């Protein structure tokens, strides 16, 4: 096994035991980037020389018995909305040409303090305003979409071009590409991980979280990232929690909510079969399945767009008026549409969110987690704009991908996408687990218990 094939947990353990050199690990990942990135274009920029320098420093520290933290010497890719001191934050947009971050974002600083080595910045749909990341190809099929907006991060991890990565999630932008590329994506509770130094899409919906190969890896990264930062007005001062799941989690008595409505409506048959098989596996592990009804489903799409669109337009107001020609057409149209939304529409969306949060809180008193599909279909062909369901109805691809993930953004509850197999075309399928606010430990415990029953997942092919 090559070092780039190791999970984060295994790599960190081997480095701490002095069986693996941080230099060897970083070199292996950089070699893998050279091999696969020309085919998938996961990275905006690769910081190879800086990464090698940081790896040499980490190796020298390890030789003295000094380990900065749990991620010492482990290479990571960061979505190119996340500031790293001295590096460009392009947001995959011409609008940001020449931009260079003056200081680390909170999450970049925390990764650095834990010993992680940045190998590059990963592509996003322009300013995270989309669900496909068009410049990046799916790790399993270059003719299919990567998912978005954290597509570069998910593809890099799936292909072995990063040991782990960070993404952001406003309507599913971590979980969607994680599901479509067969990796784990975690959107934490709103306010758990600070967003200071991260380019915003929608202030009241934005989250930042890890993209990893395994649930255990996600727990390791989340433990490093979580914690209060007063520079983010939404950041909450909560007690520090070690999110790492126990080695052999017991799901006896855990109540898993299985939706009767919404989450299995207009879902591809192969996706539904794989997810229901995953849910059945949780029952085999001791979980108690409870049928539930998802509330206020007719308002979900309107609430998501009613919050996101005007907030995004407000953020881009200056550049939209001065350099509109620098935006890609799809993003510019959405930003211009936001100028047509009135204050009344935005306030109604805020009220709808409050009511939805109250209803979800009642459901989550009856169950410990909810299990459902992460996305309604696997990765579509590049350029496909709509999907036709078995009842003859059609839906835009972007609407379909956000449909099952946006409720967790609206309500702020934590959500986790875990791979549960592939369809007959070989494309990955993801199961979504949703939990109570600040219930990440339970969520990760359930995901880890499921994952331990499955064969080890292989990397996506190199080309």
For this structure, what is the CATH class? Alpha Beta
CATH superfamily: Amidase signature (AS) domain
Number of helices: 15
Under the CATH scheme, the architecture is Alpha-Beta Complex
Order of helices and strands: HHEHEHEHEHEEHEHEHHHHEEEHHEEH
Strand order across the biggest sheet?
Answer: 1-3-2-4-6-5-12-13-9-7-8
How far is it from the N-terminal to the C-terminal residue, by CA?
19 Å
Low-confidence region ranges: none
Radius of gyration: 20 Å
Fraction in helix: 25-40%
Major pleated sheet: 11 strands, mixed
Count of distinct strands: 13
**Fraction in beta strands:** 5-15%
Count of folded domains: 1
Mean pLDDT: 97
Overall shape: globular
Computed structural class: alpha/beta
Keywords: Transferase
Domain Amidase: 25-444
Biased composition (Basic and acidic residues): 231-250
GO molecular function, one term: transferase activity
Write a concise keyword list for the protein shown above:
alpha/beta, 11-stranded mixed beta sheet, 463 residues, Amidase signature (AS) enzymes
Structural topology:
Layout: H1 8-16, H2 22-40, E1 43-46, H3 48-63, E2 75-79, H4 106-113, E3 117-122, H5 151-158, E4 164-169, H6 175-181, E5 184-187, E6 207-212, H7 215-225, E7 255-259, H8 269-284, E8 288-292, H9 300-315, H10 317-322, H11 329-338, H12 343-366, E9 369-373, E10 386-388, E11 394-396, H13 397-403, H14 406-411, E12 415-422, E13 428-435, H15 440-451
Parallel strand pairs: 2-3, 2-4, 7-8, 7-9
Antiparallel strand pairs: 1-3, 4-6, 5-6, 5-12, 9-13, 10-11, 12-13
GO molecular function: transferase activity
Keywords: Transferase
Biased composition (Basic and acidic residues): 231-250
